[in-house]
Amino acid sequence: MFRAARLKLTAWYLLIITVIGVLFSLVAYSGLTFEVRRGLGLQALRAVIEREKARAPGENALPPSFMERRSGARAIPPHTPVFDPQVFAETKRRIALQLVFINLGLLTLSGFAGYFLAGRTLKPIEEMLNEQKRFTADASHELRTPLTAMKTEIEVALRDQSFDKDQAKDLLQSNLEEIDRLQFLSDHLLALSRYQKDRDSRDFEEVSLAEAFAEAAVKIQPLAEAKSIQILSDVQDISLEADKDGLVKLFTIFLDNAVKYSPENSKVNVAAAVRKNKVVITVQDSGIGIRAGELPYIFNRFYRADASRTKNQVHGYGLGLSIAKSIIDKHNGKVEVSSTPEKGTTFTIFLPQKHRQIFS
Ligand code: ADP
User: Fold this and answer.
1) Residue 63 carries which DSSP code?
2) Cβ count near 194 (within 10 Å)
3) Which of 145, 262, 303, 315 is deepest in the core (most CB within 10 A)?
4) What ligand 1 atom has the least distance to the C-alpha of 253?
């Protein structure tokens, strides 16, 4: 598909260049032939004057001007050829031939350059489409897994003649869990699409960072309590221009991960302060950590570090950090991560205090 598009684009480039080339050549051809005709005419005129001078020496001190000749002020024999038409025809032919060669060379060069440029133009679109395809495939796979599980359980139950009330309850319970997973996944997909939209200034308002953090902490508290994890806060009450929902979601994602990937009875430290007009937030845990080789990928959609370790033990779809990254991008901020396996992870988020602030 992209090869055909590339060839089509090259053909368009060539067509445009051909039209421009032909137009320029026509203008150049008529300009050059006019100049040649004028040059040859003047040359022939000079020759005639020289001849006349030679026939009647001393009659004219100065040769007649071109205008004089045109107006007939001087007596020049009426049938004197202005120039040799054969020379003129030959010159015209040579000019035309040279222009054809120049155009052919231009077309060949443009063909290669056009093909190269078409490739470069289409590359980001191709990458975006591939990414989109990958995303759709991953999302469909994740959506299909719980659906297949539910379908199988229901089919088995329907075939079982002795299926009783308790078993039905278990089945519904299991189905409910799968539905929760589906809901979780669709919520994450919706969040991803919401924060990936363009930066809409209307979403930005004056937000209290401490309030956004408190809202997120309340959501994560039950999970933390279940693992006896303490969430310690040193979040200063900073006011910043932000998307309030986005900020709450951001804290929720980092807190959720910190709790999910930390052992029981550990601590999660969250701090926020303003440094050089930037809000700097750190979320630090002493959990399982992330291997250095995996760090560049953790913000990719559906990426889960060390699948064998986390996939079986901790529930997730690998979408949290990509949503967090979209929110940070929307705020024109940046995120850094440092981690030591089996020791812990620290995420540092930098957000501008003002929405329109240029960030360095
Ligand atoms: P999920 O947690 O649903 O798998 P995320 O996008 O939130 O997806 O995270 C991507 C991966 O990054 C996780 O699968 C996990 O391996 C790793 N990760 C994220 N946060 C932490 C953390 N605080 N400690 C250790 N690993 C983490």
Assistant:
1) P
2) 17
3) 262
4) 7
Of 49, 34, 45, which is closest to residue 88 (Cα–Cα)? 34
Place of tokens 């560049």: 296
The predicted-structure confidence for 121-169, as pLDDT tens digits, reads as follows: 999 998 888 888 988 999 999 899 899 999 999 999 999 989 899 999 9
The CATH superfamily assigned to 205-352 is Histidine kinase-like ATPase, C-terminal domain (3.30.565.10)
Query: Would the CATH topology of 131-197 be identical to that of 205-352?
Result: no
Q: How far is the CA of 298 from the centre of ligand 1 (A)?
A: 7
Q: Give the mutation target among 298, 301, 309, 347 for probing the ligand 1 site: most ligand atoms within 8 A of CB.
A: 298
Work out the average pLDDT over 9-26: 93
CA of 219 to the centre of ligand 1 (A): 18
State if residue 330 touches ligand 1 by the CB under 6 angstroms criterion: no
Q: Is the CB of 284 under 6 A from ligand 1?
A: no
| pLDDT score at 34 | 93
Q: Residue for token digits 């063909």? A: 111
pLDDT in tens, 28-66: 999 999 999 898 888 888 888 888 888 765 555 455 555
Instruction: Report how far ligand 1's centroid is from the alpha carbon of 189 (Å).
Output: 16
SS3 193: helix
Can you say whether the dihedral through the CA atoms of 220, 221, 227, 230 is positive or negative?
positive
Task: Assign domain 131-197 one CATH number from 3.40.50.2300, 3.60.9.10, 1.10.287.130, 1.25.40.10.
Answer: 1.10.287.130
Q: Which residue has the tokens 């010159």?
A: 91
Checking if the pLDDT of 314 tops 90, the result is no
Q: What pLDDT is recorded for position 325?
A: 95
User: At what angle are helices 165-195 and 244-260 packed, to 10 degrees?
Assistant: 130
Give yes or no for residue 17 CB within 6 A of ligand 1: no
Give pTM, 2 decimals.
0.72
Q: What is the pLDDT of residue 296?
A: 94
Of the CA atoms within 13 Å of residue 296, those in its CB half-sphere come to: 1
